[in-house]
Amino acid sequence: MAPDQDSLRQRKIAATDDNVVAAGEALLPQDRISTLKGIRPNEVVIDGIIYDIGSFSHPGGDSIYLFGGNDVTAQYQMIHPYHTSKHLAKMRSVGRVPDYACEYRFDSDFGKEIKKEVFRIVHRGREFGTPGFLARAAVYLTFFFAMQALWVFSGTSYSLAIAYGVAHALIGLNVQHDANHGAVSKMTWVNDLLGWGADFIGGCKYLWMEKHWTHHVFTNHPEKDPDGFSAEPFLLFNHYKVGNPKRTFLHAYQAFYFVFVLSGYWLSSVFCFAEVYDLQDRGARGVGLSFPNPWVTSRGKYALAMRILYHITNLIIPLYKNCSWSTVGHIYVMGVAGSLTLGLLFTLSHNFEDAERDPTAEVRSTGQAVCWYKTQVETSSTYGGWTAGALTGGLNFQIEHHLFPRMSSAWYPYIAPKVREICQKHGVRYTYYPWVWQNLISTIKYTHAMGNVDQFKPNPFKGET
Fold it and tell me: Is the pTM of this model over 0.85?
């Protein structure tokens, strides 16, 4: 669901007998009434209207089919920040969900102003990768494949394992991340190609998109953000009250061992063959999404082939050439190096002191939808500047990234001052750390507080006591 924005007005509906309408005529919902559970694999729900995407020629590529069978209201608004009802009218509506309600609103004064001002800096249709971004991506790709060649042909070592593991992380941060957000290029094939970087480092682009896009929409939502549960039962990042069955005596010490848990990320990823084969991310499914559509199923064989290739290249060949415990150790260190580089940087982003951990609490108490843009700012943090951005793929600008996930990370240093200014104007809390180590210390304190509920500090910005 990441369109070529220059082509929005050229969208066309496939010419079938039952969806041809007169020019300018609005496509109105048909008589079909359905629940969200009754949505078919070739359909999506946006604002309570059911749309058929099977007959829709999407200018942003076929990734639109990834979420077929689901309510994608928030995903749609997130990826298309300046779309109107005119754009939706280009899709064929086939029914409606009468009791539909969304926890988020996207038309607040804060959201409107931040979009208007940011698009004055980065004009619509030009938010993709800059020459500087592409040059950095080329450097990181060259480094990765150079380390891989040494790993395969020259034999493994502990020093090479560390370098190769960091190279894995650099691809994850700087190449596949932008690509799988559709932010590298207007040309969808470029994003698709570089998106396979996730598979070259032991992940899976399709599983990553299922889970990561869900995380982006529902950041720190206590029931819908899969990243909030991904480290359980070992680590608790959500605020569970005393007596919650998820709490154990070990969590009181999680600030001391959370680094060791993060170091196992690679192991938990590269051996999940079943998940790769059916392409049903367990985290996303655990928060209510499902991906039972034929398009996802058809990608399983490619994902599985890439996973087998990864194992041959990184595990089987080194062990075939030198089947010893030292080689096993090298492989493990490579995985740990990549896991820690990725895991620590991602953990900083939304787990820090005073991070908003229940952004939709107001919905439950008042029944009123909350501003999605405000929740994204107050659940995220930004640290450092341009240099940190060049090393982390702009993920140090996590606030800016969550506001505009389809904008290339190369632009975040340029929009950050304006974003901060608008947040201050509207009273929206913007968390900034000049140095990454300051963010890390805050994360460690936060992790300790979550493990020890009596240490949890209420959020004064919400009037909690």
Answer: yes
